[in-house]
Amino acid sequence: MVAAHNAHLTSQWFADQGFAVLVADGRGTPGRSPAWEKAVHRDFTVSLDDQIDALQDLAKSHPLDLSRVAIRGWSYGGWLAGLAVLRRPDVFHAGIAGAPVTDWRLYDTHYTERYLGDPAKDPESYAKSSLVTEDGLSSPADPQRPLMVVHGLADDNVVVAHTLRLSSALLAAGRPHEVLPLSGVTHMTPQEQVAENLLLLQVDFLKRSLGLA
Question: What confidence score (pLDDT) does residue 6 get?
Answer without folding.
Answer: 74
